[in-house]
Every structure is written in structure tokens, then in C-alpha cells.
Amino acid sequence: MKEWWVQVGLLGVPLLAVYLHIPPPQLSPALRSWKSSGSFFTYKDLNIFYRDSTGAVGSSDVVVLLHGFPTSSYDWSKIWEGLTQRFHRVIALDFLGFGFSDKPRPHGYSIFEQATIVEGLLRHLGLRHQRINLLSHDYGDTVAQELLH
């Protein structure tokens, strides 16, 4: 009788092959809408998704939203409208490896790089020297701490 690990391996190889050829699920209408209302900017040949909305008239406040793990900028979808009523500009991005942003493999992901990408987005949007409000949760809290440092 063959060793158990050989039998598992013989069964696992075809299952892995099938899994690798399964197409990703279709986006929901809400996610399609979220993606179509956003844009991409390039960071070191990688595409980073972001959403940028103007809102409150008479306000000059800008808020940047930093999502958690393992999610995306879509975390903020339910409060987006309310934020645009308070802030002049509401900006959210998908960190590298999350949401609609590129997911390079292999890649050494780091909090420092995510913070650098946020800074790159602010430069891209011409906001490098403007006062920015940060709203973050979970993984985004750590990126926010690095940005504040």
C-alpha cells in the first residue's frame, strides 16, 4: 500500500489544477459601480486604485480614508455620501495587494511601502502640501501611524 502522503498528493494535483483554472466570480453591481467611479495611478509600475470625490461647498477639508485588512476602499461605501456632505474632498485607495489595486507576487509587502503609496497618491492629486485629515481602521491605523510619524 502506498504511503498516505502519496495518495493525498495524487489527489491534490488535479484539484489544484482545476482550482487554478476557475475564473474569478463576477463583480456585484455595487462593486462594478464603485470601480467605475474610481481611477488608477501608477506607483513603481503598479496600478493603485483610488476614488476621489468632491463634496461640501464652502469647506476646504480633505479626508483620506485608509481601509482595514483584508478588505478594500469599499469598506467606506456606506458612509461615503455622508463624508462628502462634511468634507470638500473625500479620497480612498486600495492598498497594494488589496481590492482593485495590483497584487504582485512575489512581493515583500510592508506598512512603510503602503504609507509611501498614500504619499504618492497625494502627490499625484496635487495635495502634498495641503492639510489632510485621516480616517482609518484596522490595518489602515498602522499605515496612518506611519504617515503621522
UniProtKB/TrEMBL annotation:
Annotated AB hydrolase-1 domain residues: 62-140
UniProt cross-references to Pfam families, sorted A to Z: Abhydrolase_1 (PF00561)
Record carries keyword Signal: yes
Keywords, ordered alphabetically: Signal
Record's signal peptide: 1-20
InterPro entries, alphabetized: AB_hydrolase_1, AB_hydrolase_fold, AB_hydrolase_sf, Epox_hydrolase-like
Taxonomic superkingdom: Eukaryota
One GO biological process term: acylglycerol catabolic process
PANTHER family (alphabetical): HYDROLASE, PUTATIVE (AFU_ORTHOLOGUE AFUA_2G14860)-RELATED, MONOACYLGLYCEROL LIPASE
Protein name, UniProt field: MEST protein
Gene: Mest
